[in-house]
């Protein structure tokens, strides 16, 4: 599926009552290699590129297992930090918490995110975040980024008991939004398997944010396919 240009997006303009954003790599960057290096340094470990590759070789399959409902958040937390826990002598939950608080300070808004949030808020569109990220990180990160004034709703899968793409998480979001028509909600995210597939299952329109130009999986059909967050201005904001 090709990315749409601004003219094509403008022709698809639609009124939405809510914009529902993924957090990591959609609104915020996520420099986990820096956070992990800082965490390891606290315990006298010189974190190398090889350490990071090894960590991700364990971490990424665990996240997929969590998203597919094969493990819970506690198992994810424990298993991904098993090696570093053995090296530091610290329990995995503590290491995970320390990393999340570190990441809350490291994460920055991606290009165009602040402007889109401000413009949508100014146009009377309500804004939510729906994330599979750990709860301990979310509020501190919003405060650090200074965009909390634009956010009307924060849905965290860890607290709801269902990860994206589980339809129940999106239904919980709709309930907390006071049950808008799902087609008046636009789900925006970078992960086609969790953000786009999950939003579509709940009846929402979807916008796949794909800055790297990856091929779209055959089983996913986003309403919009964009390379830059700025492109959504043409879709969601009323014409001047």
Overview of this protein structure:
- GO terms for molecular function: 5'-nucleotidase activity.
- It comes from Kingella denitrificans ATCC 33394.
- Keywords: Hydrolase.
- It holds the Pfam family Hydrolase.
- There is one protein chain.
- By secondary structure, the chain is an alpha/beta fold.
- It has two domains: 153 residues, Rossmann fold, CATH 3.40.50; 75 residues, Putative phosphatase, domain 2 (DNA polymerase, domain 1, Orthogonal Bundle).
- It is 48% helix and 11% strand.
- Strands 3-2-1-4-5-6 form a six-stranded parallel beta sheet, with helices on both faces.
- It is globular.
- The protein starts with 5 loop residues before the first helix and ends with a helix.
Characteristic key phrases:
240 residues; alpha/beta; HAD hydrolase, TIGR02254 family; hydrolase; Rossmann fold; 12 helices; EC 3.1.3.5; Pyrimidine_5'-ntase_YjjG
């Amino acid at each position: 599926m090709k990315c749409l240009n601004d003219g094509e997006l403008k022709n698809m303009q639609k009124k939405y009552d809510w914009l529902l954003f993924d957090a990591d790599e959609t609104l915020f960057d996520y420099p986990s290699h820096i956070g992990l290096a800082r965490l390891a340094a606290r315990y006298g470990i010189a974190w190398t590129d090889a350490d990071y590759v090894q960590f991700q070789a364990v971490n990424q399959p665990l996240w997929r297992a969590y998203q597919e409902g094969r493990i819970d958040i506690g198992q994810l937390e424990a298993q991904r930090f098993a090696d570093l826990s053995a090296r530091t002598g610290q329990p995995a939950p503590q290491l995970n918490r320390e990393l999340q608080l570190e990441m809350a300070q490291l994460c920055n808004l991606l290009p165009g995110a602040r402007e889109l949030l401000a413009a949508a808020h100014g146009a009377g569109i309500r804004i939510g975040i729906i994330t599979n990220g750990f709860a301990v990180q979310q509020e501190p990160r919003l405060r650090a980024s200074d965009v909390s004034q634009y956010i009307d709703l924060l849905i965290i899968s860890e607290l709801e008991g269902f990860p994206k793409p589980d339809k129940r998480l999106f239904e919980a979001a709709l309930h907390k939004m006071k049950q808008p028509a799902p087609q008046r909600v636009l789900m925006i995210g970078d992960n086609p398997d969790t953000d786009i597939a999950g939003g579509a299952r709940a009846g929402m329109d979807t916008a796949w944010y794909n800055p790297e130009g990856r091929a779209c999986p055959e089983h996913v059909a986003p309403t919009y396919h964009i390379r830059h967050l700025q492109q959504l201005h043409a879709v969601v904001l009323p014409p001047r």
